[in-house]
Design goal:
- It is a single chain.
- The chain has helices spanning about 15-20, 40-45, 50-65, 70-80, 110-130, 145-150, 170-180, 195-205, 210-215, 225-240, 260-270, 285-290, 315-325, 330-340, 350-355, 365-380, 385-395, 415-425, 450-460; strands spanning about 1-5, 15, 30, 90-95, 100, 135-140, 160-165, 185-190, 215-220, 250-255, 275-280, 295, 345, 360, 405-410, 445.
- With about 475 residues, it is an alpha/beta fold.
- The protein has a domain at about 90-105 and about 225-425: Rossmann fold (3-Layer(aba) Sandwich).
- Helix 6 (about 145-150) runs parallel beside helix 7 and helix 16 packs across helix 18.
- The longest helix is centred in the first third of the chain and has 19 residues, at about 110-130.
- The structure holds pyridoxal-5'-phosphate.
- Pyridoxal-5'-phosphate (PLP) binds near residues 112 and 255.
């Protein structure tokens, strides 16, 4: 399998190179040259398999011979062996034909672990083979950074720098990034919001001299291997609920559009997904795009679901590539408009296609809180505020009640205890293996929102 850039002006790469590169040299994102499909019989065969086996069957067509079969199976086994639930991504029924998929059973309690633990293992296997050394730079609104630091702590051949918006992540998120003692992982608190952090990371990748000298690699949600890892649980959930014999819908709490795009990938592979509902908080650029056909940035307003406080949804570019018939130059023009004018209008054809697969809804802060309380009262279940945004959206965009609706539970409630306590009066406890998180010593560096200063710091640290 070869990978092409969404902007059409970078060399095609194999799976391993696309994974290590992250961003393409023309500023675009890598996508597979064609979409492999699973037949209805192959999808039906996934029923009842261990998660790891389903993961192997869904991902193998995209990986081709980049990793030999035995090595890939070992990578997957090690990635998910540390999850604290046998199903890895269990379904819990919360209403009539309505289900929550718990994606927070990994080491840092958010769904980012599903992809990041796999990437950690894939990188290690690849670097061991080549004897190379790389530097991973990432921006985080909280959960990606903690997942990346956990996945790479102590791994040989890899240095990790994670930029997070100073003061805008929860205490649990911050501590998960600042308490690991391994010297190869470092948390940088940037004076700015998540979009600033993400923009500086993009700048570093676009500074080709720095990119070369620091041997940069990216593991942000733009990394194709992460999107791919997330496609797996759409299959396991849909098959458990009757696919390929019946359709299933999903509601996805959305920020950077990686998770919901993985659902689109599953659909392109042949999984009978009816609706993909994009759930946004008050930072609702994607909801406005579906409503109006105009994709226009506004300022980020901090919310109680901080991992979705985003106005630049990087992975949306991958969908644009599909909406515009895979024409790289058309995507490059739109992305330049977004950068220079703060937004763009979709063509009518692109908007129609977008609406053919996706719905959207937005939850205000009050609606998010109310959803946490309502699920607690009705189902006795405690959900995190991101999941609550999804619950609210699923309610508004339920569609045919005969079609199962799966809401993705993207984080453990204990990762966002203040919002949960405010809504329910109860403070969700951390799982036992993390009980001493609040007592561990922290280690982090504050940096200005300034490219040169950040590059200088990283260069010094690597010397
Ligand atoms: C990252 C994250 C999201 C948003 O996922 P995207 O792939 O960026 O759309 C939602 N909820 C939680 C808890 C997250 O960590």
């Amino acid at each position: 399998m070869r990978y092409v850039s969404t902007r059409g002006a970078a060399p095609k790469l194999g799976f391993e190179e696309a994974m290590l590169a992250g961003l393409a040299l023309d500023g675009g994102l890598y996508v597979p040259e064609t979409w492999p499909t699973l037949s209805p019989a192959e999808i039906a065969d996934l029923a009842g398999l261990p998660y790891e086996e389903a993961a192997f069957r869904v991902m193998a067509p995209f990986i081709g011979d980049a990793f030999p079969e035995a090595e890939l199976r070992g990578v997957i086994a090690r990635a998910y062996g540390c999850f604290d639930h046998a199903a890895r991504a269990p379904l819990v029924q919360v209403g009539p034909n309505e289900w929550v998929m718990e994606l927070f059973h990994g080491p840092t309690l958010a769904f980012k672990d599903v992809a990041m633990q796999l990437i950690g293992q894939l990188f290690e296997a690849s670097l061991r083979r080549s004897g190379r050394r790389i530097t991973i730079i990432g921006a985080t609104s909280g959960d990606t950074g903690s997942a990346a630091i956990d996945a790479f702590r102590g791994r040989e051949g890899v240095d990790v720098f994670i930029l997070f918006p100073d003061g805008r992540v929860s205490e649990v998120q911050r501590r998960q990034m600042t308490t690991p003692a391994e010297p190869n992982v470092r948390a940088l608190a940037i004076a700015g919001d998540f979009d600033d952090a993400q923009a500086r990371v993009k700048d570093m990748f676009n500074d080709h001299a720095f990119r070369e000298s620091a041997r940069l690699a990216g593991v942000n949600s733009i990394n194709w291997a992460r999107v791919l890892a997330q496609a797996v649980y759409y299959f396991t959930a849909a098959v458990a609920l009757g696919a390929p014999h019946r359709k299933v819908s999903f509601t996805v709490p959305t920020g950077n559009f990686g998770d919901v795009f993985a659902g689109y990938v599953a659909k392109r592979m042949g999984l009978p997904i009816d609706r993909l509902v994009i759930a946004t908080n008050q930072n609702d650029i994607l909801h406005r795009t579906l409503e109006t056909g105009r994709h226009v940035k506004e300022g980020v307003a901090p919310s109680i679901s901080p991992s979705m406080d985003i106005q630049v949804s990087s992975n949306f570019e991958r969908l644009l590539f599909e909406l515009y018939d895979r024409e790289g130059p058309a995507v490059a023009t739109l992305m330049a408009e977004l950068r220079d004018k703060g937004g763009f209008a979709l063509s009518q054809g692109a908007l129609d296609r977008l609406r053919a697969d996706f719905d959207s809804a937005r939850a205000s802060e009050e609606e998010t809180s109310a959803a946490i309380a309502a699920v607690h009262d009705a189902a006795g279940m405690t959900i995190c505020p991101h999941t609550a945004v999804g619950m609210h959206a699923a309610c508004l965009r339920r569609g045919d009640p005969k079609t199962p609706m799966v809401i993705l539970a993207t984080a453990h409630p204990a990762k966002f205890p203040d919002a949960v306590e405010a809504a329910t009066g109860l403070r969700p406890p951390l799982p036992p293996h993390m009980a001493d998180l609040m007592d561990r010593p922290e280690r982090m560096t504050r940096v200005p929102n300034d490219l040169a200063a950040i590059e200088a710091l990283i260069t010094r640290e690597l010397a």
